[in-house]
Amino acid sequence: MQVMYQSTRGKGEPVTASQAILKGLSEDGGLFVPTQIPALDVSMDELSRMTYQETAYQVMSRLLTDFTEEELRTCINRAYDKKFDTDVIAPLKEADGAYYLELFHGPTIAFKDMALSILPYLMTTAARKNNVKNEIVILTATSGDTGKAALAGFADVPGTRIIVFYPKHGVSPIQEKQMVTQKGANTFVVGIHGNFDDAQTAVKKMFNDKELAAELSQAGFQFSSANSINIGRLVPQIVYYVYAYAALVRQNKIEAGQEINIVVPTGNFGNILAAFYAKQMGLPVNKLICASNENKVLFDFFSTGTYNRKRDFILTSSPSMDILISSNLERLIYLISGRNEAKNRELMKELNENGRYGITGKMKAELSDFAAGYASADEMKKAIRDTYENTGYVMDTHTAVAAAVYEAYRRDSNDPAKTIIASTASPYKFAGSVLNAIRPGEYEGQEGIALADELSRLSGTEIPKAVEEIRNAEIRHTRECDAQEMEAAVKEILGLR
Questions:
Q1: Bridge-partner residues for 307, per DSSP?
Q2: Which listed residue, 228, 238, 413, 423, has the most CB atoms within 10 A of its CB?
């Protein structure tokens, strides 16, 4: 069965998977979604005996149907190799009544590696398949983790350049150091004076600017995206939920077919959307629990049916979740509207013009697969401290938001289902916040890489290579600009002005 991809906003002709990956975003501003979600018609018995790479092929081949087996296996094997610090790629760790799916064993110690390690290979393969002659310019906004993972993935990849915009004062010291020290002649990093939503809005505007696209094409360039708005980033994220479930079966923690819960800390909704797609493909999932921090726009949406971004933006110690415009939610809205492009366009227009929209009662009823919660800063810190004191397991600030939300869900629902918590970043990425949660007041005023040594001592874990590499790394990227100057910065980088 060939799976094609349709814009969430238009009635244009469906495109192939490789074309959707190259485009990143549809010309009408919509996101590409599969015209049908295929069943994962492989037995759990078989999946439980597969490596991560083999599982990836089974999942991705169902969705990226215009890639040959050889093309897809080559992309997978190049992506999930020794750049990960464990052969398992995504291990499960049991702690305090839940199973933590560690998605941070890649080169940048965050879950974005799971998809951004393979996206460059998918994209360059897609370019060859579609006879693309232009140089592909990866244009990306980041709230912290996507930026470094995309930079690492695309560094010195022939036929590509990558430009990453990040909020200058909205990421952790480690996140910023990882980006500004990135090597590669084709890599460019720009700190903006604004927040992630400002960066993402400007990036989307550039994607939708037909005059800019024509100017780029004349100069031999075309845009694509490494954000999770790109279906080539979303599909690989489905894999690790399937792999985690199969691991529970393999470890005799559950029986094949037994339903589980999945808790995901998220701001942009992409990571939990991947779990939703896994469920749609047949993975036995009971509840998908959406965990928000104090920027709880998603929690409010699931609670009320109204999405409202008109609120104060809060800088937290889980910065990758500090998002008020959850781009990937559009894909879910499209599905729960019955794939109604007109309804989706109407709602997205409301969001753009008024900063809010409300879904119908019928659409809200379609959200029964989801539960939602949010955690305050104090609750997040308590989750880190309690889990460490009870089990010795150390988690980062984002995972702790999920752990706190899960604890509240478990208490309030009495739901006994085995639960996977997506652990989205290494605690070393947020060492200061983690240490201050475990030992309040002892590390006040200290920040950055120096705290990694202390976290290693306290946790009994080895400092990741990704942290050691930037300890004395040279600062290579110093560009800054206001949000309204981002297009000018892109043109300057590409030599168009």
A1: 357
A2: 423
Contacts of 450 (CB under 8 A, 6+ apart): none
**Do residues 139 and 163 make contact, with C-beta atoms less than 8 angstroms apart?**
yes
Model pLDDT for residues 41-87, shown as the tens digit of each residue: 999 999 999 999 999 999 999 999 999 999 999 999 999 999 999 99
What pLDDT, in 10s, does the model give residues 439-448? 998 887 776 6
* Cα 78 to Cα 70: distance, rounded to the nearest angstrom: 12
Q: In the beta sheet, which residues pair with residue 306?
A: 358
The pLDDT of 255-269, averaged and rounded, is 96
- Point out which residues pair with 285 in neighbouring strands: 260
Do the bridges between strand 5-7 and strand 32-34 make them parallel or antiparallel, or are there none, so unpaired?
antiparallel
SS3 labels along 24-82: CCCCCCCCEEECCCCCCCCCHHHHCCCCHHHHHHHHHHHHCCCCCHHHHHHHHHHHCCC
Q: How would you class 59 by CB atoms within 10 Å of its CB: exposed for 0-12, middle for 13-18, buried for 19 or more?
A: buried
The whole-number average pLDDT for the span 88-93 is 98
Q: Which residue has the tokens 């989801």?
A: 370
Token pair recorded at residue 103: 């998605």
Q: 92-109+232-465 architecture in CATH?
A: 3-Layer(aba) Sandwich (3.40)
This prediction's pTM: 0.92
Q: What average pLDDT does range 23-32 have in this prediction? A: 91
Residues written for the chain: 497
* First vs last C-alpha separation in the chain: 47
Looking at residue 350, its pLDDT comes to 97
Q: Is the distance from CB of 306 to CB of 357 less than 8 angstroms?
A: yes
